[in-house]
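Changelog note: in this version the structure field was regenerated for every chain. One regenerated record is shown below for reference.
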Amino acid sequence: MADTAEAVKKTVEKNAAAATAQAEKIQAAGAQAFREGLERTTASFGELNAEGKQNLDAVVASAAAAQKGAEALSQQALSYGKTSWETGVAAAQSLAKARSVQELIELQTSYTKSAMEAYLSEVTKATDVFTASVKDSFKPINERVTATVEKFQAAR
């Protein structure tokens, strides 16, 4: 009976040691999985932070391009207004010096024709500047959207 008790004791100790070893393996695997998960999460937050910074930089670049375009349009409008005013004053002085109704009509017609041509030319220039400004403003944002879409497609 002593031998049986000793055999049971050894079996229990052996099973306890095996269970302890198995528990340690499980604990080590769990700790490793936790560390790896934590590292992936930290890396993901780092990537997310970098993406957010790049998106903010794109918005700032877009706003700067829009401001530059608005300044160009404003400068162009100011220049046209000044030139138009000066041309109008010169035309008024010329009209005041007309010696006949026929000359007055010819001067007025000439002024009106040149004023309309200058206006249409200015509208064309303003449209070109505005179009370029909008294109430049959206470029940084479009680049970020494209990069993000490519990143999501690569993650599939």
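Spot check on this record: The CA atoms of residues 77 and 123 lie 10 Å apart. The chain has a mean pLDDT of 89.
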